[in-house]
Amino acid sequence: xxxxxxxxxxxxxxxxxxxxxxxxxxxxxxxxxxxxxxxxxxxxxxxxxxxxxxxxxxxxxxxxxxxxxxxxxxxxxxxxxxxxxxxxxxxxxxxxxxxxxxxxxxxxxxxxxxxxxxxxxxxxxxxxx
Amino acid sequence: xxxxxxxxxxxxxxxxxxxxxxxxxxxxxxxxxxxxxxxxxxxxxxxxxxxxxxxxxxxxxxxxxxxxxxxxxxxxxxxxxxxxxxxxxxxxxxxxxxxxxxxxxxxxxxxxxxxxxxxxxxxxxxxxx
Amino acid sequence: xxxxxxxxxxxxxxxxxxxxxxxxxxxxxxxxxxxxxxxxxxxxxxxxxxxxxxxxxxxxxxxxxxxxxxxxxxxxxxxxxxxxxxxxxxxxxxxxxxxxxxxxxxxxxxxxxxxxxxxxxxxxxxxxx
Lengths: 129, 129, 129
Fold this sequence. Notes:
The structure is a homotrimer.
Chain A: E1 2-3, H1 9-20, E2 25-42, E3 47-53, E4 57-69, E5 72-82, E6 88-107, E7 113-117, E8 124-128
Antiparallel strand pairs in A: 1-6, 2-3, 2-4, 2-6, 4-5, 5-6, 7-8
């Protein structure tokens, strides 16, 4: 799939999964973003720190999965972004405005995964439904 | 597939797709390159800027897809490269000389994508054939 | 699959492949690590240099494959890690202690690959079994 110019990558992939009825899936994407917000999870304090990327960048790597959270398809996405010198910023994708993006989304059959709160990490992690 | 030592990664994957008759596909690769040329797309001026990587590097990430362009299989590839200190350079792969590379290329069935000029971005983007 | 907190990513994926009977496979993963050891292969001297990552980091990208080495499933893994500022370190994963990790492991059918010593690179590379 090609995503729409100016869409948010996170919302667009979530919407794509929902429209195709994909509750468990895996994807990669490449392209370019106009700007982005990344997250870094503070493993001690159990909170996301935010990193703003205010410049156009290559989407050098984008890997993620689809699973259920509160009964709805939820996209978990990690990216590596590159600037005009090839220098990188990376992390958990909170938001990314699409310049152009090509996605390979694969539906996975078999057990469904549902995200539930995990005490040890403070994250919503997979349990087999 | 294992790619040949001293091959150009872009040409080798294009040739692999052609030889297997793959017109729509997706792939990942890992390995190491002897040197590379990366591209950063200038979203305002609609042109690729070139970044030269003149040293041996790990192919830390390599994601891409195969689609048709002018009726022929065309490989679109993004990479993250790492030097001996683990520092990275990333972007659109224009050329990469293989030291060693292992590729997982998957043929996609269903609609075919053909690259056509897109006015908004200046890029050749997918239209369903 | 979700990997166990405090497991080593390399061992956990190897064990996962062994337990599922996967001798040829491909995977991606995202999550976070507590710490890691990366490798950079010195293409001239044919040896891995080690890079220590002593801080918690996002597993921004993780791509790898499973093949046979000495008759057993062997995991070859490359990663990109990101710190709290989004800055990256990347390379061949020697060890990575899991904070949280979600893996998409795919079994590949068809020819099996077995790693054999390659004179040119000094690496164990694929030969079709």
